[in-house]
Amino acid sequence: MRLNPFNTNNINVSSSRGGGGVGKAGGLGCGTIVLAAIGYFAFGLDPFQTAATVESVQQQTSAGSDQVNTNEQEVCTASPYATEACNALDSLNSTWSRTFDQQGYGGSFQQPALRLFAGSVSTEGCGGATSAAGPFYCPANQTIYIDTSFYDTLERQLGAGGDFARYYVMAHEYGHHIQTLTGVSDQIRSAQQQNPRSANQLQVLMELQADCYAGVWAGKNRNLIEAGDIEEGMQAAAAIGDDRLTGGRVSSENFTHGTSRQRSEALRLGLQGDDRKCDDITQLR
């Protein structure tokens, strides 16, 4: 995907390295893997790994604070992956800002921040996390967190490489930011609390809508899409479906992100470029 170079005036980016440990996350609850209900929106991981990560984070104590670099030019040019992330963030900010104006969403558009980290990270409002948690969005401080080493995992272990696959990761997390701005995330969390038995199903809908929003961004920038990009995105979406990640070890009732087919279809729906189509994704079964 031929994205324009980032403009530091249009992005809020920082980087950090963990200061030796991650603090106990006050919002993590009791080890639940329904991450949206506790403040995290993870991109898509093996639930067994995620549960272990949550428990580990709860038990650890902080051994030091993160070392943060807020020089956006330095952060964005630190590696090819960092540059890609900054280019994508710039494009996402511009695209969704225009979309908010066009659709008349309630409230004003606010850009999210992006924190690139290595090893572990402490967040404001969502506690601590390690790289094992994968990319995630924290609604408490409206920040996307990515350890770019995840991109190597995506390609080498899950077979989903290519720049568009990486952009899809960023755009999915950005989709959770859109849900925060529109109030959808609050509505879902409230519904989960009122009906705990449906918490996983509601979480799946949340994740599928974020996939759809990722497609919307790409669809609204179709002139920048190159040959093979769509295939890379579809392969990535399929690679992180609950059914494929868990290998049959988890029943469909306990899925939290959707099947490979659902995630691919959600991305494809969004590629039409109409964000309103993402409002009702219950058809993706």
TrEMBL record:
Keywords: Membrane, Transmembrane, Transmembrane helix. It is found in: Membrane. InterPro entries: Uncharacterised_pept_Zn_put. It is a single-pass membrane protein. Transmembrane segments: none annotated. It comes from the Bacteria. Pfam families: Zn_peptidase. The keyword Membrane applies. The keyword Mitochondrion does not apply. PANTHER family: INNER MEMBRANE PROTEIN, PUTATIVE MEMBRANE PROTEIN YPFJ. This is Neutral zinc metallopeptidase.
